[in-house]
Amino acid sequence: MGDGDMECFGPAALYLRKPERERIEAQTKPFDAKTAFFVVDKEEDYLKGVLEKKEGGKATVKTIEEGGKSKTVTVKEDEIFPMNPPKYDKIEDMAMMTHLHEPSVLYNLKERYAAWMIYTYSGLFCVTVNPYKWLPVYDAVVVNGYRGKKRIEAPPHIFSISDNAYQFCLQDRENQSVLITGESGAGKTVNTKRVIQYFATIAVAGGKKAEGQQPTSKIQGSLEDQIIAANPLLEAYGNAKTVRNDNSSRFGKFIRIHFGQTGKLASADIETYLLEKSRVTFQLSAERSYHIFYQLMTGHKPELLEALLITTNPYDYPMISQGEITVKSIDDVEELIATDTAIDILGFTAEEKLGIYKLTGSVIHHGSMKFKQKQREEQAEPDGTEVADKIAYLMGLNSADMLKALCYPRVKVGNEFVTKGQTVPQVNNSVSALCKSVYEKMFLWMVIRINEMLDTKQQRVFYIGVLDIAGFEIFDYNSLEQLCINFTNEKLQQFFNHTMFVLEQEEYKKEGIEWEFIDFGMDLAQCIELIEKPMGIFSILEEECMFPKASDATFKGKLYDQHLGKTKCFEKPKPAKGKAEAHFSLVHYAGTVDYNITGWLDKNKDPLNDSVVQLYQKSAMKLLAFLYASHGAEAEGGGGGKKGGKKKGGSFQTVSALFRENLGKLMTNLRSTHPHFVRCLIPNETKTPGLMQNFLVLHQLRCNGVLEGIRICRKGFPSRIIYADFKQRYKVLNASVIPDGQFIDNKKASEKLLGSIDVDHTQYMFGNTKVFFKAGLLGTLEEMRDEKLASLVTMTQAICRGFVMRREFVKMMQRRESIYSIQYNIRSFMNVKHWPWMKVYFKVKPLLKSAETEKELANMKENYDKMKSDLETALAKKKELEEKMVALVQEKNNLQLAVASESECLSDAEERCEGLIKSKIQLEAKLKEATERLEDEEEMNAELTAKKRKLEDECSELKKDIDDLELTLAKVEKEKHATENKVKNLTEEMASQDESIAKLTKEKKALQEAHQQTLDDLQAEEDKVNTLTKSKTKLEQQVDDLEGSLEQEKKLRMDLERAKRKLEGDLKLTQESVMDLENDKQQSDEKIKKKDFEISQHLSKIEDEQSLGAQLQKKIKELQARIEELEEEIEAERAARAKIEKQRADLSRELEEISERLEEAGGATAAQIEMNKKREAEFQKLRRDLEESTLQHEATASALRKKQADSVAELGEQIDNLQRVKQKLEKEKSEYKMEIDDLSSNMEAVAKAKVNYCFEEKNIC
């Protein structure tokens, strides 16, 4: 697409694609592929450089830094990466680069970002970098520029992704989804708005909603206006400033835009996920609460300040002023106008609008309520009623009743209600919970109302879903909300990996490429299972919420016991100065996050003061009463809609369980669509336009799969071309291989062509429909093609120049001859012009010309008059034709309207006509058949009279057969009852088998406990042995000291020589006993190891038994399935019997009719005789079918009895085996106990010997 083609994008063209002049300059820029490299750098990660030399596995590179600085570094050869040729600078699709690696991707994004080209393709997905400033790339001109264009026909843009999804919808009739993901502050919300803007612009249905469709509201906007207007309202109540993002979505949303049969906008709906309601009552110092609070306090609408009883100073309200109160990049006045306008466009009534604002104002006032402790009591009481009066006025309540319900709530104990006292912290927590609940319910209600407005009741054929969900978050203080958000991003990343990498490799197998499946290191299953699987974090959290005495400490203890040291993704946090306390850490794909579990149990249970909720239900404000109308029903029987009544009550429907359920539905929706991925990147932490921090961008590229996509490109075959295109494009490299005028298969032609070119033949593979290339080879082929074309163009230019010069030479020779001729004629004229006759000729010739001129003037005048009359006639005719054309156009429009209005009637008439024609044909056939039958009956009427008596005899025999059939049916009914009894017996036997399995499971658990106790005893004995060893070491040291003292005093204490020898003998005896004990310890260790091995064998046997039990469970399920099949067959028999009875009744009725016809008409037809024979044959067939089904059921029942007996015998054998194993383990346990007793007695003997030795030593001293 050249500069001329880019004119359709208007001023945005500069921000979408580099100019053609710059592209040409890049292609002619000098470049040495042998020396241009990227080199690893500690500060900037990667730098550009020039290779100076390579030797000994080392490379010396002179770096090229910004500002002209340079330095020479020596690194390993695997730390330098080749640069791409200049023609790949700022390339729009990074998968097309010759050299695919981290630095080439980073610098391509960096250079495009420096030129404000924020969108770039990377294979199958789009990468966008937050510019932190407004760019003119989203105007209506740009929308029209991308409309209907393929991805390769226009520069990268979010509009191109949107249009491709829309075109896929129209072509494939398949639902699409656009997943806009990335970290918080990367620009997901802005891109989501642009996607919605694009669909609302290109797929306008062209009409408003029908009046009366929503009788409760006055609709002021069309469907596309309402879809766009939903965003400001949701942003006001769902977005807030965070550390990294001034307009961060604190909730997830999945917007489905539905289209009709022709691709026009039909309706839309929004699903929301996990509103961060804790932000209503708490914000960090660098953050602020939801935008709506600060919009209302701008004072732009004084009537709202007066109605809500608030001021313009946010610091008057502690709950919303814990952090910042203004944001530089957001104008709260303009946002308030947009929010108020959106409410009107979406069709909220004036009462609903006022109710929304009043509830928002009441939430603001909740944070100003104060309570104090009564003297000498722990009971809380209000510290003033001014704020409570304002809240009660706004919410339509009684102030005294509300304060009483807060300080003295009524709780149900058994079957009675009692009044409970509350402390000041308890009341404050209750107030916080109530205002968070009001805000959340109001937000969810607004979403429901928006969906009602967007539902036009038009036909929905397919939809495009746009997902905008909170990005990955790592804050100083991370709570349950951050865990849910990060878990959602883990699931989305897993879905992305499967779609991008697994399906890419499946493409190779589909094309017949020899390829071994590679795990590219992005498997997030371990972290996901740690959070969501049984005994995971959510499971333990929900389990703790069921126990009244559970606390944060017990929750933390269970987490550590279950996962610390057992799961790589679960770690103990390292304490850091200046940061909030953390209780555990999780290793996510985007980094390690420290979580604080304070208050998680209360957040998950989400308790409310029921006494205040009852006041809400009786509120004079209709909106508040409606929001809490179903609260009591939810608390008592929430979740009772499932079958079997196995789901827990509403009190156990925790926040985490509801979140997992919604997330599961979202993933199901996404898997049913064709996804399109947009990856948003944060360029820097300071929100500076145009600045890109290499380490930050590389971290995101690694985490969100962009670099993994590049890695699979390098190992796989990123470039592919269908055979016909490859043959057409690269035939120029060796045209002699593919002769003209001779048919040759495209695949064979491509194989021959590649085989004749001097390239690495291991770098490409031939698939079924395409040829696949390794990274870089296609670039090499392109360079070879460019060189070939350059030589061909040079040769063509030489030929053309020679041809042009030869033609010019011929013209020059012709001009030379002409000059000679002209010169000759001029010389001749100069010689004759003074002749007398020539003078006469000069005078006469003009006179002849004047006479001819007068004649020509007369002819011209005559022609002028004629043309003037013709012109007048033509003008009159033109006017007449114009009038006719206007009439015809009007008539054409009328006819078009008539055709449009009559088209449906015409189609209905055609259908009716076709039906009438078919009916006519059928009736004519029936008439012809009836006529033939009438002729046959008239001919055979005489013969039927003679056969009347014979037919009556056959009728009597038929009646006897019917009686026999009734007896057979009764017999089948008895057999059916017998089969039902057998099924019932089988069911009872299965129940007994279940009981025996449960008993075996209990015994297995007891054995495991005994085994664990044995291991604990062994550990205790090992501790004792270790203590004994330490004592022995200490004793030996004391003996050494004693021997030294004896040597020093040998001369002074000669009289004690005998006693010393005696002690030495005792010492030897003690040492021998210690050696014996060491030998005993070694033997005990060997026995313990042997027993451990035997126990492991027993455990493996137990696991085998468990697997056998699982197999038995599977067999039981198969038997149950077979029983259900038998029951279905019984039902089928019942239906067959009913059908037979019905047929018998019909036959009886037909027989009676035949008899009446014979008596009335005096005879019957041959057709009736044939019909009776046919009915008799049907009876015989039904009888045989019943007999066969009965035999089959008996065989099935006997087979089931045999299988059940075999399974019972197998279970009995397994029970005996388990009992034998149990007895053996108990025997081994008793042996262990005996060995432990022996070791204890040995230890006691050693202790006594030690005491005696010490005593004797004291006596000697």
UniProtKB/TrEMBL annotation:
It is found in: Cytoplasm, Myofibril. Residues 850-1249 form a coiled coil. It comes from the Eukaryota. One of its GO terms (cellular component) is myosin filament. The keyword Methyltransferase does not apply. One of its GO terms (molecular function) is actin binding. Residues 663-685 are annotated as: Actin-binding. Residues 89-786 form the Myosin motor domain. ATP binds at residues 182-189. This is Myosin heavy chain. It comes from Coilia grayii (Gray's grenadier anchovy). The lineage of its organism: Eukaryota, Metazoa, Chordata, Craniata, Vertebrata.
